[in-house]
Amino acid sequence: MIELTGGRRAPHIFISCGEASGDRYGAALVAALRSLIPGVRISALGGPKLAATGVEIVADSHEVAVMGFTEVISALPAILRVQRRVWNFLTTESVDLVIPIDFPGFNGKLASQSRKLGLPVFWLIAPQVWAWGSWRTGGFRKKVDRLGTILPFETSYFGQRGFDVFAMGHPLMEDYGEGYPFEESLSRREHMLNHREGPLTIGILPGSRRQELAHLLPVLKVTCQAVMGHLPDRELRFVVSAAPGLDPVQISEVFDGNFEISQEPLPELMQRLDLALVCSGTASLEAALAGVPHELVYRTGALNAFVGRRLVRTPHIGLSNLILDRRMVREHLQEQATPLPLARNLLRWLSRPAERQTFYGDVRSVREVCGERGVWERTAREILTLIDSREKHPNDADNATAQATGNGA
């Protein structure tokens, strides 16, 4: 615990997140901050996880949780309402630090506005400009005081471009690091896949982005039906994961009573899966860290895909593939993500034990480079150090903000 001296008030921190993963990370950060300074005041743009911590919710992230060009246009009135609400809050309340968590579209504007107000910005979960917009790093650098990175290669990438970087380690290691029954789950899974005794449990992880589910869910259901057709004599269980904040009805409208719809936390669900179909995103890295053989699937609208192909400059989209800088899992994108090829590739894991062993070796490599547990305690201490340095050297901080604003932050 950190003691406040000289009659100093506890700091007021504003956290902003727009997706389920950011909401979960924000809640974990709140717990770490409170363990260090119990009286810290925290307000947020957040979802159900942050709300459950008892922080002051200024706006619900559900209102701005959209991705893709067409979806942003339709949601623009709601986004502008939330912006006005948040801007007014930052202007009228005594906020000491703004912490955007990922979600670069909305949070990029928030960071700019915060700097104009003289508020320091400690951005957590660096945006993936290395994939789709390296030319934007100069403008982004002017918006942040410190940048928290979670992927191994990001620390050097941003450090070489002039950022004050803090290497957090990956937050998923809080769930999948020391203490996670990786080897035990792997042993159970291998016994099931080799000996084919008992039901085969296949996970369907479609993600949390509502606008992408409409494109993915029908494809995933037909893929499951194709798997059933290929294994008529095998008992199969399909478990569809409903991400936090997602209405399970949206899933049950596609997947009928033959499919289990689960709201289990993914670290628990992963332990009982033998294979999985996973939407690109955080869940794909979770499947890798848990050692679940899987196929990575991504589909979005035609316009979003057209623009994305011209912006994204990386050879992979899966996080585990990016971390290793080679293919660890197969990626099925847009028109390649069709039911029959997906089903055939998923079933390849059953008949190729050597391929599974290669996968498990890659899993161990990914687990090693993603760091250790204690991410949020380390990060909370860095946050409080930044606040403390601003209080001790206000003139230096004001000059830095004025320079950044003058340069068009």
List keywords for this structure.
single chain; 19 helices; Rossmann fold; alpha/beta; disordered C terminus; 13 strands
Number of helices: 19
Percent of residues in β-strands: 5-15%
Distance between the termini: 35 Å
Which fold name is given in CATH as the topology of the largest domain? Rossmann fold
Any idea how many domains? 2
CATH class division of the largest domain: Alpha Beta
Q: Strand order within the widest sheet? A: 10-9-8-11-12-13
Largest sheet composition: 6 strands, parallel
Poorly predicted tracts of residues: 401-409
CATH architecture of the largest domain: 3-Layer(aba) Sandwich
Query: Rough shape?
Result: globular
Mean pLDDT: 87
Radius of gyration (CA) equals 22 Å
Per CATH, the superfamily of the largest domain is Glycogen Phosphorylase B
**Share of helix among residues?**
40-55%
Annotation, overall tally of beta strands: 13
Helix/strand/pairing class, anyone?
alpha/beta
